[in-house]
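Work package 3, deliverable 3.1, input record:
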Amino acid sequence: MIVCWQLSGSFRFNTCVFNVKQNSPFAQWLRVLTIGRRPKVTLTRIAVLVVTCFVTFKFILLPIRLEGISMQPTLRTGQVNFVNRLAYLRHAPRRGDIVSVRLAGPHVMLMKRIIGLPGETISFHAGRAYINGQPLDEPYVKFSCDWEHEPIPCGLDQYYVVGDNRSMPYEAHTQGRAERARIMGKLLL
Amino acid sequence: MKTFLRILLLAALCGLGFWLWMILFPSPEKVVLKKIASLAATVTFSADASNITRAGKAGKLIGFFAVDAQIIFDAPGQTARTLSGRDEIRAAALAGFGGMPALQVRFLDVSVRIGADRQTADVSCTARANAGDRQDFGVQEMHFQLKQLDGDWLITRAETVKTLS
């Protein structure tokens, strides 16, 4: 008796032909290890992984390598970290956040901590930061500092950013007001 | 099969023609990008570069600037300075190159905007400079204005940009 079924569209005959040598358990194990049991599925997985990595590390989490001493001891030279570009989608940058400030593009960025928010006035007296005349508690500043500076007002779209290492003279430390558009994201780790 | 091969050959020829066209007649953007890369190479020298080499580089550097070019330098922690004209630029370059053990300059994130008249260009970039063999380096956002003069793109104005005000 011959029984016949109509094959569904998704059904495919397995057309792979293996020689005797390939049929050995080692060859099969090697094949499974390299291309998986279903090569098409493996390829799809690889493609999805590549696209996910590209989107993640190009637009969401920017991998960065830190250089310089201005954020010591919080961040050290050579450390690898990520900038979360989606951190400020729901809320504005906050005081105490370590943010990346772009220069001409994303290849070189400044890593600084926000201490002043839009509309506030920042000053330094005896090495201590003051916000609108009130001293700011900064437990992350570990090195001694003797900065003195007149009050600097932040615009409505500006954040005052500064490094944690304030042991160098005020003029030698890159700091100041950064426009919101220059803040690319928040440090992840 | 023959038709397919012919189409493939035609496509390859078209690609080759386009590539040759781009090589022979580059767009102003590409010419300006090349100019900026060449500028970085000109101001870069190693520790073993002789004084003659350094003087030669300073002389070559002048070729990138227009006669009435201006360089406005105002970076944090540095004295603000303006150089006007090729003579001042040459003198500053000679003094600077002679006083540094070595210099490596790279321009990153270079973006070029060609003016509507196709004769002027604005370039924004980040300059990264290493002086000597030290690990210490400086980064500075820069803005260049270029103008096409006698068929050559020359810098008419170069200035530092304050990333943080």
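The CA atoms of residues 167 and 187 of chain A lie 23 Å apart.
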